Amino acid sequence: MDKFAALRAFVAVVDHGGFAPAARRHGVAPSSLTRQIDSLEQTLGTLLLNRSTRSVTLTDAGRRYLEDARRILDDLENANRAVSEAGGPPGGLLRLSIPVAFGRLHIGPALPVFLKRYPDMRLDVSLTDTVVNLVEDRIDIAIRLGALSTSSLIARKLAPHRRIICASPDYIAERGAPSTPRQLADHNCLLFDYLSGDNSWTLTRNGVHERITLSGNLKASGSELLREAAIGGAGLILMPTWLVGSDIAQGRLVPLLEDWTVGPGPDEGAIWGVYLPNRRGSRKVNCLLDFLSAHFGSPPYWDASVPK
Length: 308
Prior knowledge:
The chain is of the alpha+beta class and 308 residues long. 38% of the residues lie in helices and 23% in strands.
């Protein structure tokens, strides 16, 4: 029995909630995972999993064993990584999770340069707006936007994440431009569909916060759809400068209330590269994050035409 393979099988079944989903995720037959865990249980002389036709759950022994199994696999991965990255240029596979619009606009165009500079690197990129679990989805780096929740992940700031209110010249010619935050309530605001259902924007100046409840005839969960609607004159939007910076530069959108910091909440956050603590010393991880930070610039290139 390959004990490391058996440990990986055990952890995978627990993480994915069953033999079938774990097998699909890892590209093996469920019977292969069953045989590995059966052999592991026979070697240990105890059951690790309670199995029924509907679910797989940990036994008391399995719950205790799981923590040690994770630690052993982490130690093995760290040892392998330290040896493989000991010398020479960075190389190997790096799995990334990137928000869809940000990846399409600002990371995808830069990847050919990165891969040409580091020809031994391979990238597996998942474009998703879902906050993934780095352990379960085997992600090396996730790019996250805005404020971060508290977690054990290591977070490196790659660029600021500024949001700005803007509208098209046609909308402003027809409806006028708000001169104070309270006047936003008199405008048609195109709203992002946050899971919380919040329809407010928080504006901050000189330490004073103003939270304005808004209304509008369009709400969407896609930022690019709202951007297109705003360019077409449908209303005001609150969007990150990485999405609308080029529109402002080319006159398709006009920034409003520029002397206020604005967001869905008081914390704008940043653009982050996050990774697991056991990737802290990885040359591959640091290599990509260094590249992206330099590529974005300080201030980032998309802010070149946006009022400070």
